[in-house]
Design a protein that fits this description.
Layout lengths: L8 H18 L12 H13 L1 H8 L7 H8 L10 H11 L11 E9 L5 E3 L4 E3 L6 H15 L11 E9 L5 E9 L4 H18 L6 H11 L4 H16 L7 H4 L14 H22 L6 H6 L4 H23 L9
Antiparallel strand pairs: 1-4, 2-3, 4-5
Amino acid sequence: MAQSPSDCFKRIFWEQQSQATCIEMSSKRKDCRAMRWHPLMIRWCLSLRHQSQKAYDKVREVLHLPSQRTLRDYTHYCTGNPGFSTAVYEQLMLAAGIDSLTEWQKCVFILIDEMHIKENRVYEKHSGSVIGFTNLGDINNELLSFEQEFEQGISQPDKPLAKTVLTFMVRGIFTSLKFPYAHFPCKNLTGELIFDPFWEAVYRLERCGFKVLSKKVSKALQLTGGSDAEKNAIFCNMFDKFFDALNVSSYAKGVRQQKKFQLPYTSSNDFRLKWLQDEFLPYLKSWENSVNERCGFTAKQEKRMLLSQETITGLLMTTQSFIELVPYLFSLSGVKSFLS
C-alpha cells in the first residue's frame, strides 16, 4: 500500500483508518472531533450514505467513518454571504418543512443579536473577493457613505472595516424551528440602521408563508407567554394593523384573507383613519411616556427601551400625513376608491 500513489483512494482510506484508530486508542473516550477527514473520504461516505442511512450506520460499527452530523454539514452547506440570499431561503424552507405546516405552526418571531468580531480583512477564495467590510444593504451603505463623505469631505470614502455582526434568527412559536436567517457586518450599529433590514426580513418571511407581525402571532404570544408577553402581543397587533392599513395593494386581498384593514379605501371617513388618530398615535406616545416615567435607568438604557427617535419621527410623520391625505384624495373629482 505504501507503493500506491498518494492520491489513491485505497491508500487514503487505510491511512485514515489507521489515524482514527490511533486517536481512539490514545484518548480515554472516542472523540470524533479530533479526526480530520480527507475530502475523498467525505465524498465516498456521502455516496454510501445516500444509498442507505441505516446501512451506513451499520458500517460505522466496524469502520471509522464520519458521523451523520459531519456529513450533514457538507450536504447542508451554502455560501454565507452578507444579507439575504436564495440559498439560505431554500435551506429555511427545507428546515421548516413549510409545505406541511398548519397555519398556526407558521407563526414565528425574529431574534436580533449583535456579535463582536475581530476587525480584519480576509480573502474569500471561492468568490475572489475581500470580506471584512461593513455591509448593511444598499440603502444603508449609501447613507453611511454619504454621512462619511459629509463629515470627512472625501468624495469616495473608504469602506470601514466591520467590528460587529448583526444577526437575524427565525424561531418558531409552536415549533422547534431555530434558523440563522441573515447577517450583516457593521461598525457602529444604531437603531435606524436596523430598520431597513428588519422590515425586509419581515417582508421576505411573510412572502414565504410565515406569520411574523400579525394578529395570529399576537394571539400566539398571549397563549404561550401569558402576562409576560402581553406588551409584545400588543406591539404585534398594533403594527400588523398599521402596515395593513398603509399597504393596501389589492381590491380582493382583504376579502380573501378576511382582514378589514386591508380593504380598499372608499370613503374620507374610513374607520382606519379614526384608529390611526385615536389608537395608534396615542399608543406611540404612551409607550414613550411610560419609559420616561421609569426611574433608575440611564439615558442609554431608556433609549434601548424605545424605537429609535428617527423611526418614531418617521412613523408620526407618515401617519399624520396619511390621515390628511385620504380626505383630500376623496375631495378630488372622480375618486371613488384607492389603494394605499
